[in-house]
Design brief:
Layout (H helix, E strand, L loop, with lengths): L14 E5 L2 E6 L6 E8 L2 H12 L7 E6 L5 H11 L14 E4 L4 E6 L6 H6 L2 H7 E6 L12 E8 L5 E8 L1 H11 L1
Parallel strand pairs: 4-7, 4-8, 6-7
Antiparallel strand pairs: 1-2, 2-3, 3-9, 5-6, 8-9
Length: 185
């Protein structure tokens, strides 16, 4: 089934979108409950801008699961989410403390699963309580994906050079599929 644009036009298998200097490719949904945007960032500032754009659609209980190699830009992306949520203060990686809470409306919980050995360890950190009061941005999420809600946003970042990044943003579930389509259409 081809992806349809906002006004019902058939966009075929691949749509290239240029907005504010960002190149994006919108892939068709794999099924009715997923949508993927492939975006290219040419600087840390652009990565933060893309995340801030996505943050406008987030609410308490939402999960943004981030993956990518060391230095790919996961923390940079979370800094943009925080800015987009109106959170003040500097956001740093929670690698050694596992989780940082940034108060706001909604609040942001920034967690790092790199040192966790199983999905159960994430649950032991109080995942249910976190989701009851904040947006969760989880770095290195691939190792604990089984503990996450099935409906979530997944962001995979790859480095294409010193400052160029490719971001694959997938909305899983009806709401998050709509978020991806709306935020990056």
């Amino acid at each position: 089934m081809p992806f349809e644009g906002r006004h019902g036009q058939n966009l075929g298998l691949l749509q290239t979108v240029c907005a504010k200097g960002h190149n994006a490719a919108m892939l068709p949904a794999k099924e009715t409950s997923t949508a993927t945007a492939v975006l290219h960032s040419h600087s840390p500032g652009e990565t933060r801008d893309l995340a801030a754009r996505l943050a406008a659609y987030l609410k308490v209980g939402d999960v943004v699961a981030l993956s990518g190699s060391l230095g790919a830009g996961k923390t940079c992306f979370v800094q943009g989410l925080a800015r987009g949520l109106g959170i003040e203060g500097y956001v740093t990686s929670p690698t050694f403390i596992l989780m940082r809470h940034h108060p706001g409306n909604p609040s942001l919980c920034h967690a790092d699963a790199y040192r966790l050995e199983s999905p159960e360890e994430l649950e032991d950190l109080g995942l249910e309580d976190v989701l009851a009061g904040a947006v969760l941005a989880l770095e290195w999420a691939e190792g604990v994906a089984d503990a996450l809600p099935a409906e979530r946003l997944e962001v995979h970042i790859t480095s294409d050079g010193e400052s160029t990044r490719t971001l694959h943003i997938e909305g899983r579930g009806d709401r998050f599929s709509a978020v991806v389509r709306e935020a990056f259409a």
